[in-house]
Amino acid sequence: xxxxxxxxxxxxxxxxxxxxxxxxxxxxxxxxxxxxxxxxxxxxxxxxxxxxxxxxxxxxxxxxxxxxxxxxxxxxxxxxxxxxxxxxxxxxxxxxxxxxxxxxxxxxxxxxxxxxxxxxxxxxxxxxxxxxxxxxxxxxxxxxxxxxxxxxxxxxxxxxxxxxxxxxxxxxxxxxxxxxxxxxxxxxxxxxxxxxxxxxxxxxxxxxxxxxxxxxxxxxxxxxxxxxxxxxxxxx
Length: 236
Ligand SMILES: [Zn+2]
Hints:
17% of the residues lie in helices and 26% in strands. It has helices at 2-33, 42-49; strands at 99-101, 104-106, 110-111, 126-129, 135-137, 142-149, 155-161, 164-171, 173-174, 181-182, 187-190, 201-209, 215-218, 230-231. The radius of gyration is 23 Å and the shape is elongated.
């Protein structure tokens, strides 16, 4: 009787072990195979076999730094400078060139998660999925009031002019410094996947100071045209 019990126990547990061994074996095989593929094929195969990044944030990064958070990083760390220059209009997109996502090139920037996406409590900008290393440009002339790492925003550049700030987040590298005065369209850095980001993308936010001394986030889509992007949707 004891022998039968032991046998049936082994029979029940065996598939679990086989499953685990299969998964481990699969991951090892993938990890060994991908580096041997030609460079152009690697991103697509990685995406297909291992994971499908969301090209978005996994939570509302606008909430960080609120509620008296002791962290020096976050939303409240970026102050209003009060800079007012000429030519204050925000327009166009922070991506000028063609973009590449995985191994595919697109003629226009790809628009992913939108402002106030219902999946987040209050998504504070527009997400543009793209590979890391794409040049990012300012959509307003103005003063750089933040150009550094900032917690969930990753490497962040904020440009201000006349009560408006544009926020360009998750950069891989920053090419401007705090205090720089930029012309419209100047390159500020390269797109990346830093901070609270799942997959290479640019988070583009527009903040507007209200008369009450507070601020609101504006929908960036109000500042560019429908024919300037390809909408691919929010993938999570
Ligand atoms: Zn975002």
